[in-house]
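Why Signal recognition particle receptor subunit beta? Reviewers of the renewal asked for a concrete example.
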Amino acid sequence: MVSECDNSKGICDAGKTAMYTLLRFNEKRPTVSSMKENEGQLVLSNKTYDLVDLPGHERVRYRYNDFLPVTRTIVFVVDSTTLNRQIRSVAEYLYDVLAKAQVQKNRIPILIACNKSDMITALPTDKVKLMLENEINRLRSTRTARVEQSEEDEAEAYLGYEGENFKFDHVDNQVEFVSCSVEKEDIEKVQEWIRG
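Here is what the prediction returned.
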């Protein structure tokens, strides 16, 4: 197990593994949807970082719990060209990450990397942020009711301020949004985030 790592998360086909490969090897390589995490080291500015690419498939997302105790930062990759169609899935996964007690307790910083920004159909980061805030706000009311009904669930922290619409500014974690494009090898903002 690594002592401290940077995690890459997101739903299938967002470009997580392609970004992981570009970060690690400084080149694009063909990727396939994985059911197992990829672990490796990344060197930026003569400093080594442990990087973990976690599968986005719904059945194996729970694996990120294994890495939470050693997670330094989270890069949550979003496909900015398909968010309109996948908003519910993306928001549910992001909600799961944000509501984890350990993520909040450790105030793990989260970068929302809006991939495929080079495409004409890509949404700008401010639109991605607004859409995710609105969807998490809807999810929050249904999730809160569900958690109150079942005491067997792991405790989830309430996201944001009660009685107010959800905003990323309302969580204790640092949450930032950047546009990027693995295809155009435009990931400098992600590298800067990892460098801290």
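Strands lie at 5-9, 38-44, 47-53, 71-79, 110-115, 175-179. This is the kind of structural detail the renewal will allow us to pursue systematically.
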